[in-house]
Amino acid sequence: MAEHEPESLIEKIADKIHGHDSSSSSDSDDDKPSKVEAVQAKIFRLFGREKPVHKVFGGGKPADVFLWRNKKLSAGVLGGATALWVFFELLEYHLITLFCHILILSLALVFLWSNASTFINKSPPQIPEVRIPEKCVLEVASALRAEINYALAILRDIASGKELKKFLGVIVGLWVLSIVGNWCNFLTLFYISFVLLHTVPVLYEKYEDHVDSFAEKATAEFKKQYVVFDAKVLSKIPKGPLKEKKKD
């Protein structure tokens, strides 16, 4: 019995050592993902983006179109928008005129086909019954209402004087938009925005590391210039004393 006691003691010590090594290794393995996530979180992303570009655009079919996941569909949408812009802007076609001409042509073709089918002994065309579902209209109206309310809330916060940076950014953006509006009409501006939506996101997704690195440097430089501007201009603007109204 005395010979077995040292062996059992040694075995217990060895088991404790192995157990400590395995627990420490598992702890280190568990720490690796957290360290990787921490490093990824520290990477500068444009506009504070935390999700992939595809998720930012909703992750559905619109995102697939904007990011050219389906090249045929994206090319078709962009080609259709270009054709409409050529019709309305270059050829000076009007929307009502185009709609009426398309409707006249479609009705004439279907009418002739329906009457000609009786002479050639073929079945007349099956015209589908098209109805707009109420649920779809309500969903679109609800989504549009939410976006409008969100935009109004942002404008209200900016106008209340709480955030000077946002106020200056919105003023500059509206000023630039007013200048661009003098150069082209609404249709051309809408078409340019549509083309940018089909080109800028896919290029950014392809070169996002280079763009984010450049944007980080530009943001740091802008913050430096803003500090100088604040010290020389904004801090010297006289401000009246703010008195809180006492509630009775």
UniProtKB/TrEMBL annotation:
One of its GO terms (cellular component) is endoplasmic reticulum membrane. Signal peptide: none annotated. It is found in: Endoplasmic reticulum membrane. One of its GO terms (biological process) is response to bacterium. It is a multi-pass membrane protein. The chain crosses the membrane at residues 94-113, 167-194. This is Reticulon-like protein. Residues 62-248 form the Reticulon domain. PANTHER family: RETICULON, RETICULON-LIKE PROTEIN. Keywords: Endoplasmic reticulum, Membrane, Transmembrane, Transmembrane helix. The keyword Repeat does not apply.
